[in-house]
Amino acid sequence: xIVYVCLLIMTLMGSVASLFLKRASSADGIKSILFDINLYxxxxxxxxxxxxxxxxxxxxxxxxxxxxxxxxxxxxMFLSYLILDEKITKRKIAGVILILIGAVFVxxx
Length: 109
Description:
mainly alpha
């Protein structure tokens, strides 16, 4: 059970990491990006997510873990709506639902 919780945390961390990298992308020029704290927060979260991913892979099959990482798309859509005020269209919702259905089918043993 803890492995599945870690998998959820891993996907959420990846999505939050992307959010910080999106913020870093608004800096002007490469020098500004290199000095933007958001770059390092996002990179660190990606690194921690990768470490959790490695740990999860010790206990679950790769053919199950990789499709379930698509939960990141769900988190990303939710966070971009809440934090970046992006619009969630019916098309986006349908796309994420199809991705999640596909992930479930692929991960079922």
